[in-house]
Request: fold
Amino acid sequence: MKLFMVHVGFYDEEVGEGIYESHINFFVAAGNAKSAKRKTMQMSQFRNKKMHIDGIKEVAHVDGYEINLIKALKEKKSKIYSYNESKKL
Reply:
């Protein structure tokens, strides 16, 4: 498995009457870019917001470190640092 960042765009009617394009990134584990695209397009959030894919990046290295995905035995929640918490770091 490889890690892919899928950069998506969408127009949200609730923001500026839908004139502005918003963007987010999904991180997807897949064997190749085509599979990452397919997995992204199957996400309910992707379909519900009528998103489109602007680009896909295979993430193999970060700051000189290799990315190696290992199948998790159990899914764990990630720690999210709030605005105030991250200011204090």
Notes: The longest strand covers residues 2-11. The mean pLDDT is 96. DSSP finds three helices and five strands in the chain. The beta strands are 2-11, 21-30, 52-59, 61-62, 65-66.
